[in-house]
């Protein structure tokens, strides 16, 4: 397995920052009241991950080991500030909807964790790709949570898509049903915890099934090797 294939597997499934590492839970649970806000924060986080991993990898040989964490935080803060200003200029309504959670990307454990654990030890290409895959993995969890909570809570999907993509995106909103009394449990924080628990349980169940299915194949290979050696 190549380095890039392993990065894809780690970021999207085996070491997913949202489902396995359980990092960034504050924005993960607070912003996912709708698919639009979840996608907006996911894209912003992914862009920060790719940018900071790239910069940290480029400067890793010039940073004294004793002060590497403060320097990494400064790099992350600079990138987040640029993205925040761009969103303020071009996506002001979405920027208002996400509120404090855009600048709080600076303190997101995923970003500083990947900078320290991977980018500071690898070349630019793998480091940037690691940031991309971790960002996509985190964004997928965000969007799944946002979609489930929005659908169960208000019966819609992609409401407010124009906040992220412009006025033309109003046609993307899908109203599957119109509940007389919206299910507030799904929209409020307890709903986020319940949906997140279901996602983690589903992933663990899939991993367990895959592991169970692989055991017979491994046993057959082992028996075949023993037979070959004995013969």
TrEMBL record:
Would you say which domain of life the source belongs to? Bacteria
Name any one Pfam family assigned in the record.
Answer: Rnf-Nqr
* Membrane topology, from the record: Multi-pass membrane protein
Which segments of the protein form a coiled coil according to its record?
none
Q: Does the keyword Manganese apply?
A: no
> Where is the protein localized?
Cell inner membrane; Endomembrane system
TM regions (residue ranges): 20-50, 71-91, 97-115, 127-148, 183-201
Q: Which UniProt keywords apply?
A: Cell inner membrane, Cell membrane, Electron transport, Membrane, Translocase, Transmembrane, Transmembrane helix, Transport
Q: What is its EC number?
A: 7.-.-.-
HAMAP family per record: RsxE_RnfE (MF_00478)
The record's note on quaternary structure and interaction partners says: The complex is composed of six subunits: RnfA, RnfB, RnfC, RnfD, RnfE and RnfG.
Q: What does this protein do?
A: Part of a membrane-bound complex that couples electron transfer with translocation of ions across the membrane.
Q: Which family does it belong to?
A: Belongs to the NqrDE/RnfAE family.
Protein name as catalogued: Ion-translocating oxidoreductase complex subunit E
Gene responsible for this protein? rnfE
């Amino acid at each position: 397995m190549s380095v890039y294939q392993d990065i894809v597997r780690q970021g999207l499934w085996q070491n997913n920052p949202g489902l396995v590492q359980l990092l960034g839970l504050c924005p993960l649970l607070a912003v996912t009241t709708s698919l639009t806000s979840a996608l907006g924060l996911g894209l912003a986080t992914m862009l920060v991950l790719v940018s900071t991993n790239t910069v940290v990898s480029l400067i890793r040989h010039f940073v004294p080991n004793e002060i590497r964490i403060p320097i990494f935080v400064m790099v992350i803060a600079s990138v987040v500030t640029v993205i925040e200003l761009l969103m303020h200029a071009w996506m002001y309504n979405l920027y208002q909807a996400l509120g404090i959670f855009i600048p709080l990307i600076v303190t997101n454990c995923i970003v500083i964790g990947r900078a320290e654990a991977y980018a500071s030890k690898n070349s630019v290409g793998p480091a940037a790709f690691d940031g991309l895959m971790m960002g996509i993995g985190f964004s997928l969890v965000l969007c799944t949570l946002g979609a489930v909570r929005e659908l169960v809570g208000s019966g819609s999907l992609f409401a407010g898509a124009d906040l992220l993509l412009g006025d033309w995106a109003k046609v993307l909103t899908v109203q599957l049903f119109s509940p007389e009394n919206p299910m507030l449990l799904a929209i409020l924080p307890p709903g986020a915890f319940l949906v997140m628990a279901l996602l983690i349980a589903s992933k663990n169940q899939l991993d367990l099934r895959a592991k169970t299915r692989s055991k017979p194949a491994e046993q057959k290979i082992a028996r075949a090797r023993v037979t070959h050696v004995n013969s």
